[in-house]
Amino acid sequence: MIPEEGFAKPSKIQKLNYMSMNKMKSKDFLNTIGTLHLSMTFGIVIASLVAYYFSLQDINLEIIPEESMQIVQWLLVLVTIAFIAVSQYLKSTGLASINRETDLAHKLPKYQSVMLKKLAILEGIALLLVIMYFLSSNTFFLVLASVMVISMLVDYPSKNKIIQELQLDDEESAKINDPECYVS
User: Fold this and answer.
1) Is 4 a domain residue?
2) Angle between helices 139-154 and 69-96 (to 10 degrees)
3) Which of 21, 141, 171, 179 is most buried, taking the most CB atoms under 10 A from its CB?
């Protein structure tokens, strides 16, 4: 590692080692962003399965009164739609803020950040829906959480999707398509 201010200056070899540690091949970037995406998505699936398992037991946590359930359902439908819209807006503004003139090494980390922010928003509302299912045993919330999982899966960052969304030129597209090419 390169020492902080106030310490001895790093040698040229230390600088080269530090720089080479940060290089990432195309296949590594795609594996990293794909793994992050799927782990966030399937975390919700696992939470849903756990909540479903507990709903099959004799545990009765129905905290929400039956007369309030319809209001809560409509409220959560509106919140879900709002969160999907906000996540799409943040993604589109985030992608628009990526300078098309910069090199691929600067575009990809920004793209990954935009995607993770969008997924975090969707995961948050999906987790809320799973918790609501757990508290109410109302399958409506589980169905709504499933819709969120599907919307997360639809946005999986494939090579072609990255190329399209970042509007990469032919040279940059070739780098993404070459698994051994260093992209950062």
Assistant:
1) no
2) 10
3) 141
